[in-house]
Structures are given as structure tokens and as C-alpha cells.
Amino acid sequence: MTPTLSTNQMYSNTTLASEPAAKPSLVADKISKSFESGLINIQILTDLSIAIMPSELTLIAGPSGCGKSTLLSILSGLQFPDQGQVWALDQELSRASRRELEQFRLHHTGFVFQGFNLFPALTACEQIELPLSYLGLSKKECRERALQALHEVGMGHRVDQRPAALSGGEKQRVAIARALAKRPQFLFADEPTSALDAASGQTIINILRRIAHAHGSTVLCVSHDHRLIQHADRVLEMEDGVINRDWRASSRTQSHHLPPVPTQEHAV
Fold it and tell me: Rounded to whole angstroms, how far apart are CA atoms 52 and 57?
């Protein structure tokens, strides 16, 4: 039987791009994943190892079909790898039960998707209050957290607006606020800027980076939008199910140089 590795043991065996001396919050060790399509077996990920650090925005970049969304799903506990191990907060997700994974995602993760996934009938504030109620919070605390999160992403002036009255960039900021209000250790974003124009996309990626730096969260984003690369702390370039390049952005893009989040006068 293959021995189970601890997070620290796996971290010592992964190759990182000039990582700071800190313990990773998320580790994958030699994971592989394939899918059946008729009689054909399609290999998506091949023997991939990576360690993701807290308090920074890591961007997984690559063309469509390279495996980046599958990797994100496995790292976030939405899918199991065929082989290998995944650890998050010293918990092995790759051996967890479905119930344990549900609890992990509920209490420790937030998700941001390309399609926003907002309810048409709910206001911006209600979009956030609803999932918070599943955490067992009081109505008062749900409201307070929702308002705080909306203000943090520059949407404090739009709390009573429904999705039909919001622009694409504003909808995505509400979706980010919904994830942020849970106060998660992990925030996973799958193509969060693909449906947005350049200005809106830059605003979204800057907000995600602020969250990582201000809250100490592990923010992992996948995108084929190369405009986002200069705004990430770390970039993993993927192709054909493997990471070909792992590098860090220059110090000129540190968080204190990021532009302020647009508010009512400059809403995107």
C-alpha cells in the first residue's frame, strides 16, 4: 500500500517558482485525471504536482482544453483525481467522503464562475445573505456580512439592485462578494473575466488579488485571458495536462500599487 504523505512531505517534493518560506495551504502530488468518450480514453492531467500558497493570487493560464478547469475542480474538491493526492489545510481531499467534501466546501471555500450564477429575483444583498444562512448565522449577521462584502468590492451603492439592473462587471463583483462573505480560506475562480470587457476584467482580477493580500486567503484563478497575467502574484502556464512554466510577477505589481476599487462614480 502506498504510504500517505503529509502536507509538509509533499511540499518538499514539489518544484516551486521562488516561493516565500511559508507552508502551502493547498498541495497536489502526482495527480492524474482522464475521461471516457465512447471507446476513447482522454487524458486530461498527467502526474501533476503543485503547492499553492496563502495570501496571494495564483493564476493558472492556458488555452481552452489544456486541463486547467479540471485541475481547479480537483483542487477545490469538486472532483476526485484518478491517481495522486490532494491536501488542503492538512486534510486529504482525495480520500475524503462526499459528505466531508461538502462540509469542506461549505466552511472553507468560495467559488466565482464565468456565468455569475445570480438569482434573477434577488437583490445584490439577498444574493449573499442566502448562502450565508446555510452556515447557521443569524439574519442580522448575514445582513452585516453581506453589506460589508458588497462595500469591499465597491458595490455598496447597489445593494438593493437585482441582476437585470447591473452590468456584467457589477454582477461579477456581487458574485465575488457572495464568496467573500463566507470568509473562506480558499477562493476559486473559473474564467471570472471571460464574459467581461478589458476594464471590467482588470477590476475583477485586482479585487481578487486584494482579497488574497488583505484576508490571507488562497485565491486560485484559471483563465485563458492573457491580459490577467500581469496582475497575478504567481502564474502557472498549462498545456496538454501539465504545467510547463511556473513564475512570479515582478514587484512592480505589489498590492499597494493596485488602483482603488471603482465605486458609484466609476462603476464597471
Answer: 9
Nearest CA to 94 out of 104, 105, 83 is that of: 83
CA-nearest of 101, 105, 103, 83 to 92 is 101
Q: d(Cα 268, Cα 266) in Å, to the nearest integer?
A: 6
Residues 243, 179: Cα–Cα separation, whole Å: 27
Rounded to 5°, the CA angle 237-78-98 comes to 150
SS3 at position 246: strand
Q: What is the pLDDT of residues 4-24, one digit of tens each?
A: 444 444 443 444 444 455 789
| Cα dihedral across residues 2, 79, 126, 193: positive or negative | positive
The string of pLDDT tens digits covering residues 236-258 is: 999 999 999 999 875 444 444 44
Read off the C-alpha cell for 265.
Answer: 462614480
Instruction: Enter the C-alpha cell of residue 230.
Output: 500581469
Q: Max Cα separation, the chain?
A: 61
Q: Looking at the whole model, is its pTM more than 0.90? A: no
> Residue 236 has which C-alpha cell?
502557472
Amino acid at 178: R
Whole-Å CA distances, 49 to 80, 92, 166, 242, 243:
15, 15, 40, 9, 9
Which residue, 116, 119, 113, 29, is CA-closest to 78? Answer: 113
CA–CA separation, 109 vs 91, rounded Å? 14
Count of CB atoms situated within 10 Å of the CB of 250: 7
Query: Nearest to residue 128, comparing CAs of 96, 169, 156, 88?
Result: 156
